[in-house]
Records
---
Amino acid sequence: MKNLTPQLQIIKQQINEYIISCDNQQCIDLFNSLPFGKMLRSQLILKIAGISPESLKLCAIIEMIHTSSLLHDDVIDKADTRRGKLTINAKFGDKISILLGDMLYSIAFSQLALMNQNIAYIVANAVTQLSIGEMMDIELANTFNTSYDKYYEMIYKKTGTLIEASSKAAALLASKDSDKYALFGKNLGLAFQMIDDILDITQDSTALGKPSMFDFIDGKVTIPYLLLYERTENKDKLKSLFKVFLSKEDMSWIKEEMQKTKALEDSIAQAVSLGKKALEALKGEDNIFLEELINSMIKRTF
Amino acid sequence: MKNLTPQLQIIKQQINEYIISCDNQQCIDLFNSLPFGKMLRSQLILKIAGISPESLKLCAIIEMIHTSSLLHDDVIDKADTRRGKLTINAKFGDKISILLGDMLYSIAFSQLALMNQNIAYIVANAVTQLSIGEMMDIELANTFNTSYDKYYEMIYKKTGTLIEASSKAAALLASKDSDKYALFGKNLGLAFQMIDDILDITQDSTALGKPSMFDFIDGKVTIPYLLLYERTENKDKLKSLFKVFLSKEDMSWIKEEMQKTKALEDSIAQAVSLGKKALEALKGEDNIFLEELINSMIKRTF
């Protein structure tokens, strides 16, 4: 817990208490071996709803749901590391990772059942959308997807909905305008995922913690590739590089074509535009932290 | 849906509507390819709570949760067939099976969030126990378990809790004595699992749809093996047969020892005793169907 702020430590402690109350030593040990990230969703919730027993509980619930989805993701992607640590599936096998995910999901839902019914429904429904988004992600990777609408729908479901639900639920807790905060969360989530998709191309493997341009190798036609396919004169060559090992020359060609066609530049512009939409949604809400968060996301070097 | 009674068809139709409302063709197709069993839990709910929009909704929720756990189980056990049909993981891969399970879980929880809060908590909490039970099942299979208490706790969590919760929630819906029905469901669930564990030994592979005595090969020291280990003079031989391929001679030896030590007979007696406890819990409730259900379970040929 060393790197977490005191507030985020309280959230981790809250989750810990839920796990301990299940009275199973294996689950307690497994949970303690899980790495926690920056808890973006909890940061949002606390900045929107302030700190109260209810908002901390909502944070714990959302983090458990997010962690569950990562545990299942790592099995699906056969991932060995996450946040610089060995994944649960790499250490203890797929079975344990699936079941620990199920356990965290159900603890989260048990606690959610004790909250305001409207909030419970919003969060549970976001998890459904998240699962559908994950399925779309796999389905879209079967062939070279050229539909922007499908990509947009997929990233909205996979990443946008849980951030949207976190933001909306926090606003409801704080009796703020939930529609505004839902729109903010949705656009923040979309921008967040697009930026992630862009960094996969612009960052090297050290910064990414995985091979550069791995998305395309993995079958994921993200926003820069969608724009490139639309604009390049050599569509066949681009298609021939889909889901295969990429040599240094292949990677250079893709990057050069992205520069030439402005596919990368316009992808960044789209992400920035979504970030601005998120900010606009909050006009008049006077929440400096959230403005800073968005600005730090979109004013970065790509 | 051919083999389902009209009531159970309505439940499947209800689940279908939830899936359709998610508006994803892949999920709809996958759901339609799932085989449904006898829906024991729904039968219980309808017999306890009668037929109403709320009880049918509870049935749909419980069946979605049960189906999700089977989808994840089949990935964990690398199972190819279930109920005589190819499993989703065998047909479409582990990824799809995990995510379809997650999706059904979350739809179930979304609908649960709209129900009575007490019922929502009871059911969600049972799912947590179910996941812990599954983890215990895997953990116990790592070594030769000789603890009856651990076996009992594991089958209670893995199988008992969801049947207990179904029964209790149905009683709450019908304003019946929920403690009585919870106790009934718990003991029914325990008896049900013990009988399943006994049939693994007494039935042949055709009746089981999997190799006979597969539990022991798979590392599961079920009730007849626990009693046998306690009583046999040849503990070393029994241990040497744990988690290995069993020849015909090995199987015969185990079965003969089980006869000689009355391990099998006493296991059946325990299951019957649990069935009777379930009946006792319902004394004065005058529910002939439930009595018949228990009697058909415990008065069978093993």
---
Amino acid sequence: MTTETSNEIFPKGVAAPSEYFTGSAWVKTLLPGDEVFNTVIAHVVFEPGARNNWHTHPGGQILIVTDGEGLYQEKGRSAQKLTKGDVVRIPPGILHWHGAAGDSRFSHIAINPGTDKGTVNWLERVTDEEYQAAG
Amino acid sequence: MTTETSNEIFPKGVAAPSEYFTGSAWVKTLLPGDEVFNTVIAHVVFEPGARNNWHTHPGGQILIVTDGEGLYQEKGRSAQKLTKGDVVRIPPGILHWHGAAGDSRFSHIAINPGTDKGTVNWLERVTDEEYQAAG
């Protein structure tokens, strides 16, 4: 192999909805929502430069980075660089986005507890200006 | 390297308590329990042959296998072989154990939702006879 070894723990999944993502991303559901666990889990792969829209989670979210280099930003704060093994704790209602660095793929597990309160509320796109300022 | 490439997403963590584990295992806490998420997350590495005691989770547990070859068994059922990317859904109150195969390390993320109900109730050790029958 000529490229960095990838973890490739999970299959890539299905294309993320273009309405809520800028660039290409892939979502593999690991645990669908149900009343027993009240939790949804997915693995998400972002191609370089890809990111999701600004959004909130009514029950909060935990990200666990599995590969690559990425970004996480809460509204009104500086973006945070993420790499393999990082854990991000996103409290309920916090407006934020996440995605890949401009020059790297990025993968994380996303864990959404408290799905009886809702899973996600999508808002506007992260503009190119916002994205470039973050990186 | 002469061995299979490991994911090594997380540091190994601290030694698992010998009271509840047979053989060597390592626990890295990824999300401590709190009232916001009501969820505890850890990464666990089992050395070959290591396993935890029979136990139950009052809020259930989800395992996500990150590396190696392992085993999962519910009381009264055949053991299930596990490999990278597998997800195990363990409902509340189900008596079970998990651990490494005899000839492989084994690593998983363990997600415990509903920790307001409790996290884990430990029971007796998995005997060598039970372990050998499972593998």
